[in-house]
């Protein structure tokens, strides 16, 4: 067993979300108050400035220098820590060397990627290595996809408690949300669109709802998908596509696969955005659908993509202000139905903007959960989802320390 100096290391600590995460961890744990953690990145001066900004008591926080492309430095970083949190994206461009290092050294890892094509590549390349070394790799530990994945887990646990069985049909709808995009998120999304536009095989893979499930897992179940404005009888409102559903639904399906179909062999799941009732709701759903489609088309055309990145979208390192993060929030509604028609409605909320204020808190607690709570010998090395490795343990952390709520609205 390797000698461990840190419970947790934040790699990419000076990135936009990395700085938010560092401030959150310092507020939660101080400089080693119950959790030994460190700041890591490629620029020592930037790391020192970040540490200084946390206050005098942060002087004891260790700094680790490592570049995302330096395999030796990343392996040395892994040799000093139990868990690595990575905020260095787009992950498809910069993330693989660290995943490789963690898988090879038996170091636990989590990130906030939403890049489904990259997750598939990492599973294919490193799952056997991670299983052998004992490394637990957990992608999508931010707004993509903890509220969705743990939201479905929570609903199913409540359904089993009340009905004695899970719900084979579950929907998630965004009731309300306020928050902005950072340059890092935009860069990741643009890279996915760029890759898909140049690769027909990738476009086919991205259309597969089971694309990141274990090899050979292919249920003969047609998954619903909100692709246009439609009326949802369960919510008595119009619904538009949700930009995050492409990754969230895949993570939820992988959770069902890894848990040996705990949600059912015929489980179906989809996501959308509630836009209201009547003509106003229909027009809003139609407008949102058109806007999202136009953005994706523009992102696939090189000149239009360049114009978006140059004149419209935030650059890497940019993002919502501290005030915007505090004023942001999200309210997600879930409905599940059993085979005999009984239903349960639940809600997941967050008290900060979803992409950054809440994401940093979710990511931080996921890393702490890996370092301190996931001690079960049955949780072996490999690629997990938040629901399958953390489950109720992380829900408890998020409700106590991260401003999230998980609640049952009604069940009948």
What secondary-structure arrangement, pairings included, does this model have?
Layout: E1 6-11, H1 16-29, E2 37-41, H2 44-53, E3 63-65, H3 71-78, E4 81-86, H4 91-94, H5 96-105, E5 108-111, H6 116-133, E6 136-138, H7 146-163, E7 169-178, H8 183-197, H9 200-206, E8 230-232, E9 237-240, H10 245-258, E10 268-276, H11 278-300, H12 302-312, H13 322-327, E11 329-337, E12 343-350, H14 354-372, E13 382-384, H15 386-389, H16 392-401, E14 404-411
Helix pairs in contact: 1-14, 3-5, 5-6, 7-10, 14-16
In short:
The protein is an alpha/beta fold and 412 residues long. Helix content is 46%, strand content 20%. The longest helix is centred in the C-terminal third of the chain and has 23 residues.
Description:
- It is a single chain.
- This protein is an alpha/beta fold.
- Helix content is 46%, strand content 20%.
- The chain contains 16 helices and 14 strands.
- It has helices spanning 16-29, 44-53, 71-78, 91-94, 96-105, 116-133, 146-163, 183-197, 200-206, 245-258, 278-300, 302-312, 322-327, 354-372, 386-389, 392-401; strands spanning 6-11, 37-41, 63-65, 81-86, 108-111, 136-138, 169-178, 230-232, 237-240, 268-276, 329-337, 343-350, 382-384, 404-411.
- α2 links the parallel β2 and β3 (63-65).
- α1 crosses α14, α3 (71-78) crosses α5 (96-105) and α5 packs parallel to α6.
């Amino acid at each position: 067993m390797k000698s461990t100096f840190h419970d947790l290391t934040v790699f990419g600590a000076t990135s936009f979300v990395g700085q938010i995460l560092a401030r959150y961890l310092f507020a939660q744990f101080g400089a080693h108050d119950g959790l030994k953690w460190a700041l890591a990145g490629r620029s020592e001066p930037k790391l020192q400035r970040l540490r200084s900004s946390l206050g005098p008591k942060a002087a004891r926080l260790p700094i680790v220098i490592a570049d995302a492309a330096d395999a030796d430095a990343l392996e040395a970083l892994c040799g000093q820590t139990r868990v690595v949190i990575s905020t260095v994206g787009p992950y498809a461009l910069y993330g693989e060397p660290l995943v490789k290092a963690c898988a090879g050294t038996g170091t636990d890892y989590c990130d906030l990627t939403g890049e489904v094509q990259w997750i598939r590549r990492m599973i294919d390349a490193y799952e056997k290595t991670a299983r052998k070394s004992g490394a637990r790799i957990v992608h999508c530990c931010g707004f993509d996809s903890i509220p969705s994945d743990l939201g479905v887990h929570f609903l199913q646990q409540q359904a089993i408690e009340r009905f004695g069985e899970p719900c084979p049909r579950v929907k998630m709808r965004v009731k309300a949300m306020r928050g902005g995009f950072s340059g890092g998120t935009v860069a990741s999304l643009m890279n996915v669109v760029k890759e898909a536009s140049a690769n027909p095989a990738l476009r086919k893979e991205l259309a597969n709802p089971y694309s990141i499930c274990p090899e050979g897992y292919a249920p003969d179940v047609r998954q619903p998908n909100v692709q246009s404005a439609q009326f949802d009888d369960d919510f008595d409102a119009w619904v538009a596509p949700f930009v995050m559903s492409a990754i969230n639904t895949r993570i939820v399906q992988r959770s069902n696969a890894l848990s040996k179909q705990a949600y059912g062999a015929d489980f179906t799941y989809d996501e959308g955005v509630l836009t209201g009732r009547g003509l106003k709701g229909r027009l809003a759903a139609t407008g949102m659908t058109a806007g999202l489609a136009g953005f994706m088309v523009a992102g696939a055309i090189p000149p239009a993509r360049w114009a978006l990145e140059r004149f419209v979208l935030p650059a890497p390192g940019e993002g919502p202000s501290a005030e915007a993060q505090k004023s942001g929030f999200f309210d997600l509604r879930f409905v599940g139905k059993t085979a005999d028609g009984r239903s349960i409605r639940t809600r997941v909320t967050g008290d900060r903007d979803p992409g950054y204020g809440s994401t940093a808190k979710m990511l931080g607690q996921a890393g702490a959960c890996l370092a301190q709570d996931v001690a079960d010998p049955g949780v072996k090395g490999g690629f997990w989802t938040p629901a399958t490795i953390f489950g109720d343990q992380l829900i408890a952390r998020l409700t106590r320390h991260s401003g999230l709520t998980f609640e049952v609205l009604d069940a009948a």
